[in-house]
Amino acid sequence: MPDQQFDISFHFNYEKMNNYPRSRGRRTRILMPVRDLCTKLLFIAVFLAVSSIRLYAQTTLITLNVKNEKLESVLSKIKLQTGYSAIYENELLDHTAPITLQVTKQPLKAVLDECFKNQPLQYSLIDKSIIISKKGASKSGPDPIIIKGKVIDSKEQPLPGVTIRSKKNNANVLSKDDGSFSLSLKEANDVIIFSFVGFITQEITVNNSTTLNIVLEDQASKLADVVVVAYGQQKKVTTIGAQSSVRAEDLKLPAANLTNAIAGRVAGIIGVQRSGEPGYDNAEIYIRGISTFTNSSPLVLVDGIEREFANVDPEDIANFSVLKDASATAVYGVRGANGVILIQTKTGKPGKPMINAQYDQGYTQFTKIPKFADGVTYMQMANEAYKNSNPNDPLPKYSEDRINKTSTGEDPDLYPNVDWFDVLFKKAGQNRRARVNVNGGSENAQYYLSVGYYDEKGMYKTDELANYNNQVKFTRYNFTSNLVLKLTKSTKVDFGASGWLSNGNFPGNSAGSIWGSAYVLPPILIPPVYSNGLHSQLRTGDIFNPYNLLTQSGFSTEFRSQLWSNIRVTQDLSSILNGLSITGMFSFDNYNEHDIRRNKTVDGYLASGRDSDGNLILQQTSIGSNYLGYSRNNGGSRQFYSEAALNYKRSFGKHEVSGLLLYNQSDRQDAFAGDFISSIPYRYMGLAGRATYAYNNIYLAEANFGYNGSETFEPKKRFGFFPSFGVGYVPSEAAYFQPMLDAIQFLKLRFSYGLVGNGNIGGRRFAYISTVGGGNGGYNYGSNGVDNNIGGTDIGDYAVSVTWEKAAKSNLGIELKTFHDQVSLVVDFFREIRTGIFRQRGDVPQYEGIGSLPFANLGEIHNKGVDATLEINKQVGEVTVGFRGNFTWNRAMIINDANAPWPYPWQQRIGRKLGQRFGYTALGLYTSKEDVASSPYQTGTNMPGDIKYKDLNGDGKIDSYDQGPIGYGSIPEIVYGFGPTFNWKGWSLAGWFKGISNVDISLNGDGLQPFSQGGERGNLLSKITDRWTPDNPNPHPFYPRLTYGNDNMNYANSSWWVKNGAFLRLQTLQFGYTFSKQPWLKRAGLSNVYLYFIGNNLVTISGFKLWDVELGDGRGSQYPLIKTFNLGAKLSFR
């Protein structure tokens, strides 16, 4: 085969990627510069592309070396080298002589002449076909029919290597690089079969046509036909379990953490994000809410193995599914009660290498941060509060002279006026992403290779004089490689290796400490740094200068690495029993973390005035260190997982049956265990089974079971059996429904019930083993009162009959398609009874003399709700319009919490919502002294403008017995999302809104309770001006009457401080244009180019205005959520 020359050039501008300012002093080095990374990736991609192109290069020069081979075999070898297909009737080759031939780079015709010499046959060449007939046969018959055309995919990209075959004879060809083909047929009514691995096979009747343009549909796009289920796949029409999926494209946000992309995207997911700090921004994810007092996290499986998914690159995801009911999760047994998330990564598709390169860059901002009052307002409000509490003191807390000097800013060292958030934070940060992936292969081997890079810089300010970097910076590298080999017609092997590396740089103090100090330190006490360069610090031991905590405390680096590897072998056993196969899998995962702390402190000073020369009079308040300390921490784990499964699937006329029997086990060990208990491996093993039946796709039935356990429980109670069953009915497939198909194209009803377990019950490991300690106290013997401590031991924490939680789940689902399949609706109603929740008894009276109360599986919670998904797709002229929305509501009620009964009904937790808040019910503000006098007694000095509470038990006083249920709680009962999409002539626009409701925020802490601790402690929100005063007796202000010190109940836990936490957020907006048909693309070697803008967390609509509403309870002293604005480009080429 002659050498072919191919010249492919890649041009990529990386200047933008190097625009970040260089670090000062010591910094954590990035593992590899992005430019080098992408250059190497593109080099690899070019190498693979050229290698694959050679596979498709065609020539009419042939090299053969055969000895005594059949003519049919020689013709096959000629086809492999030239693309010429032989057309003949099978019996023609029965009496041909074997061929011995050795030629090197000879023309096709010369080689064929040698092959047909001394044969009873003759040949002719017609348009890439070798037409064979008997020697001497008349050539006056009908001329061959030449069919020409082109094969493309759904994105209008050409498909090379598609097998195009005549159904009536052996004529077959492969499509060329541009997707074109030419096939010779004998009959005008022949049927042509188009087949390609990874695509749906099509059969086309010619019907005298001479030109055929074919669009093959990707099997991966047929999510409506096949869904991923536990340990396999099922036809969607016959699936009974409740599950939802989300398109991988919808998860590709300009953010590092995948958990932040799914809340509001998938029906059944309850999710909230409590921090936006890079590297620590995991969202809380619950499937159908929380149904337990213990661990509520779902089981997450990536490529079939239990793994974390926060750092999975969305670009590598092929399928993301959520399993919700017992029918879908019972096979996971003791791990399935909290629901299951299944993620499958991408694999390759046959054909020439398809290379995708993507880069985007943008800037980040806080979505919303609290606003503090300035120094002047602070002192004026302090004077008002002080006067209210000390009406007989003629002197104010702060003099007019100090207020004036603070207002004019004449001496910021002695009269500072500091906005601490302005001191600490920049206006914007930066982020950028780069990805390159390549996939391709043949029918017997497909590969997918991907490398990704993400980098984000936070919004902290840095000290220009420091010799280290305290900025928040998070960098992550992802890689994924999947290889599928078809070793024989019945044996397939899947190899997978993937993982990620991350490197984080952080200040020496945590975000909570820095933000908390900004809330505690008033704006008028000290400047961030004195004008002479010395750092300020109060004498108070628990009020720190937040600027020092940020810039003068050193830094830390946190390195994380995760390696995932797995091999799966599938053997088709149809030779033994049709439909039978066996699968085996083994995986090894390794996780490591390495943290280095370089902490330091700084000398602190406090100014008390100026001397006669105008110099500051300073006193040292703290002694720092002149060097960076050093400490480190290592952690990690190793996990082995193995699995063996027997699968059966077969159709008998209208009957379809399938079965699964699976064994699996896992072994995870802490690589840096700090004690003996932690060093014991965490082990799990079990069996799983499933049987399904479908009659004519109308009547459906399914049974599942999981039999598994964990080493956590005592030997006799380690294993449990968790069964489930489900039934379904699809009337739209029945004959009687046919007249209604114009109105309703698909209708399915399904019901499931089953038992699932939760072995992650919290508490001490091996809780069934009691702990015993030394005695406390003793007995005094004799007149001298000697304490002999005789025979005294303490029973520590202990538990009785520890086992897993049990969840009995039922689900009723409806699936509907209407308006000619343009509208689809899925609704599920669910109920769960969770029993055996691990709790410490609180109902044992003290007179029993038990020092440590036992633990047992006593708790019970009932959860119910509904989730739904609506999808609309419609073509309006040349515009493709789409809409997708989902809704989830759940409510969990406490049935038994193992606590003693409360004195009054309104105090009872039994029968209340899980997470229900309790506190005083605020009736409003006192309007007059007469109102105070006629109301129930409240602790402290109460005046008009103070909060008045409801006396629930009617005893004439307000105390703890008057605390009842208030508000909803911090976890939303309702989560929903919706978004439209528009596509027109290459232009695309998509948006996604996320909302939560039935949730609230409880306000508390320094900065929220002005002057409540007296002294100069606590900043003030700018909201302080919205308060009650005698001159402005607003009955509904934000703050009641201001007081100095805690001399009333204004800041008690009450409904006054519980605010509505509902919001609607524009989570994603993406706008772009795809170049796909322009002539310059082919000249540049590109298939398409997509240029886009994407923004995240752009707009939030909420009645809560203090900070980002999603941060939840407290005072907003967490690192806020981030909004992003990114521009990018994605290039695809073969």
UniProtKB/TrEMBL annotation:
Subcellular location: Cell outer membrane
Gene3D superfamilies membership: Carboxypeptidase-like, regulatory domain, TonB-dependent receptor, plug domain
Superkingdom, taxonomy of origin: Bacteria
Coiled-coil intervals, chain numbering: none
Entries under Pfam families matching the protein: CarbopepD_reg_2, Plug
Membrane topology field: Multi-pass membrane protein
Subcellular location, principal: membrane
Chain segments carrying region Disordered: 387-410
Transport is among the record's keywords: yes
Keyword presence, Membrane: yes
Any one annotated GO CC term: cell outer membrane
Keyword line: Cell outer membrane, Membrane, Transmembrane, Transmembrane beta strand, Transport
PROSITE patterns, sorted: TONB_DEPENDENT_REC_3
TonB-dependent receptor plug domain location: 237-340
Family classification: Belongs to the TonB-dependent receptor family.
Protein name, UniProt field: SusC/RagA family TonB-linked outer membrane protein
The organism of origin for this protein: Chitinophaga silvatica
